[in-house]
Amino acid sequence: MSRSKKLFKLQKIDTAIDTAHKRISDIESILADDEELKRAQKKEKNTRLELEEKKKILQRAEREVRDQERKIAQNKEKLYSGKITNPKELEDLQLEAESLERYLAVLEERQLEAMIVVDQYQTAHKEALEALRKVKENRKKLHVELNQEKSKLENDIEALKAERKNALEGIPEEDLELYEGLRQTLGGIAVAKTNEQSCSACGTQIPSAVYQKARSASQLTNCKTCQRILHAE
Fold this sequence. Notes:
By secondary structure, the chain is mostly helical. The chain contains 5 helices and 2 strands, in the order ααααβαβ. The protein has a two-stranded parallel sheet.
């Protein structure tokens, strides 16, 4: 096996390990992200508090209607009891009855409006509760799937590490030092496969002499543009 092929094989393993680590990092970020849940919880809380406030307004309106109905009943009791015979007093009671009835109509209108508002806020809170339930349900399902994927990736990494250990055998120390140095400076990719006599990493056309050297089993050569080790098959 040529020197470049050994390093190319190592590169594929390291790239697979890097990709797995990157995906695990992404998964951990997703698992830690609870912004959607917080938004749903906040909306449920706000609609619940608003509903409670509207219910208080309705309860107050209902009390005012009951109080007014009680006043009307008391007025009628006096008016029709027969105890009051003075025409002026009877007229005053009649006028009071009419006034009480008019105000009752106003209070009943307020009560009806408050009932409509409560119905609207009950709907809004019900929708917020359902949205929160769905967020929690989807989040739970997603977390199960992501944790399973994370576990598999961790197992894959362990297998790749064992494969990497075997791949290191037979690679000269100086080649490994060159490879590791290039990986650090070139974004983790130290070896580039040639593609129709061009560098697959940067696309630069490779001169014939350099290409022939890249095909050599005993030599290593670098792309003159991106400096990566070239591997030609």
